[in-house]
Amino acid sequence: MSEKEQKQWYVVRAIGGKEKKVKEYIENEVRQSHLENYISQVLIPTEKIYQIRNGKKVSKESVSYPGYVLVEAALVGEIPFILRNTPNVLGFLNDTKGNSMEATPLRPQEVSRILGRVDELSESEEENEVPFFVGETVKVIDGPFSSFSGTIEAVDNDRKKLTVSVKIFGRKTPMELSFMQVEKE
């Protein structure tokens, strides 16, 4: 088996709040059953959230996608069965009622976006291929206003940010978004 061809990233659905337990259980299973050739990484995407407590700025790790654990694995032999039957696991993302033995892997672009490992080089190439202009209409593809459309009011190429005017409840509201959060319509 060629590891590079076979291993892909999959999303395992977990009971909310049990992501760390799922990760620990899978990692223990990998160690005990010597499955390192089949399951290489188990990740819970987190983000730092800053809060003010007692007048001090405190940072806290928060799960970016509650109920989801990323697993880089080669789904061969017993591996899908082991992952599906891990305590607190509900199945793979895109499973239909858990009947399907086929799990859909994430596309490389999705993995890069989720893990925040977007290559600087590809990002700058993409920027050159897809320049944004004031007055252009774009669709928001990430964040709380995903699927909303808006008009670009300002472009900041240095920071890779856009000011997009989105109509919310009949009012135009300006929002600052990164280039990665929008796509051309």
Care to give the gist of this entry?
The chain is of the alpha+beta class and 185 residues long. It has five helices and eleven strands; from the N terminus they run αβαββββαβααβββββ.
Approximate helicity band: 10-25%
* Uncertain segments: 1-5, 118-129
The level-1 CATH class of the largest domain: Alpha Beta
SSE class: alpha+beta
pLDDT average, as an integer? 81
Radius of gyration: 20 Å
- Count all strands and give the number: 11
Helix segment tally: 5
Through-space gap between termini: 42 Å
Instruction: Supply the CATH architecture of the largest domain.
Output: 2-Layer Sandwich
**Proportion of residues in β-strands:** 35-45%
What is the topology, as strand order, of the major beta sheet? Answer: 10-9-8-7-11
The CATH homologous superfamily name of the largest domain equals NusG, N-terminal domain
- Element order, helices and strands? HEHEEEEHEHHEEEEE
Q: Tell me, briefly, the overall form.
A: elongated
**Could you say what the CATH topology of the largest domain is called?**
Alpha-Beta Plaits
Question: What is the subunit organization of this protein?
Answer: single chain
Q: Major beta sheet, specifics? A: 5 strands, antiparallel
Detailed description of the structure:
This protein is 23% helix and 37% strand. The protein has five helices and eleven strands. The protein starts with a helix and ends with a strand. The strands form three sheets. A five-stranded antiparallel β-sheet has the order 10-9-8-7-11, with no helix packed on it. Strands 2-5-1-6 form a four-stranded antiparallel β-sheet. With 185 residues, it is α+β, with helices and mostly antiparallel strands. The protein folds into two domains: 3-115, Alpha-Beta Plaits; 128-184, SH3 type barrels.
